[in-house]
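S1.2 Input.
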Amino acid sequence: MTSASPTPIESGGASWRAAFRPLGPVGAQGLTQACNLGGQLVAIAWVGHQAFGSVGLGLMVAATAVFVGDLGYGPWMLREVARDGHWLPEWRAATARRLLVLLPVTLLAAVAVGATAPDPSAGMAVVAAAAPGILLSAFLPGSVLYGLGWARAAALGHILRYAVQAVNLMLGAALGGDSFALMAGYGFTAGIVVQLLAGLAAGLPAAFLWPSWRAGLPPAPALRVWGLSLLGTLNDRALPLVVAVAMHGVLSWLLIAVQVLQGLAGMLAQVDRLVVPGVVRGHHGGIAPAALLTGTTAALAVAVGIAGALLQPGLIAPGWLMLAEWHCAMVGAWSFPVLFARDAERPLLLMIAVVLPVSLGLQALGAGRVALVWLLGVRVGAAAVIGRFSAVSAGMPALARWWPATALVAAALATLVVVPA
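S1.3 Output.
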């Protein structure tokens, strides 16, 4: 793979289509999810749930540390690289600031695992072996590669990273004993090293890996996106807790639904890797595909809702409310990349900063005191306000703003009639 063979960003509509190819960002995310899930299932089959628990927790904490250490530079560099050919100095400053944050975050990760894992020694062994990878995540090249238009190189590096992690996890499970935890952690580090090497092989300069120590905080747009990403993650993690408190008898079913929907949302949101650079370069044809995909997510939610109602008739109302929230969140996910590429995201971020804390506060006050449907209704209301505001701000066609929600309501009513409660 060389720098002579980048995949240029295409026009707006083509960018959306390219996102779903196997080496597009959505397709690559799907393959990495498959690698991750496959490796974990094999490891569980070989070592058992109990032995996997502490190792799995260690890997989750390591991944969380990487997420926290991003500081919002991922989406910000994606936009700035597409906009300006002189991005390397800013990147080098970004890596230095990330390292300064990742050092204490890695130590906190080890402490957290040691305090919470069923087997503290196994959990801490995972984090210790993963520590070099956590620090090297400061240099992860995905956003830069997508910003440059080297989409295939970015996707391939991402896929290889998780394939390496899965192989190491399975090897560790096969070896058993203390080797399981260490191999899982070393696999985490090795995967990140492979992703870095893939970026260099694609043509990134060697100076890409040299931090530049510069005083000051990260750019305000990056910090805003980072802070609200943390807030969004908190909102996502609150849903299983709300379900557990209000309706623990069906927790397993609803937790499966939550994981499937959130995993699917994470995959579909990867379109921003192509849409942001495309819009920055003046390709404004992404609105119509965004509207089409909004309708597609609505149709998918309807299909899942009907299937779920047939399988679990007693969960019709909670199921439809969860699907409605997911769909409204996806409207925002399709709209935000367009706004961010135009430097027009600040009003939306300010709204999210107000609406989500209010929603979380109401959920905390109501948990255990009111029925689950009311708590889910609060979540739907918050997601609907944010989704509609983002769709209007991005210039979505009027029909695309309203018909998906109407379809959800109509299908929910039809299901209530067809399926006995």
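S1.4 Remarks. DSSP finds 17 helices and no strands in the chain.
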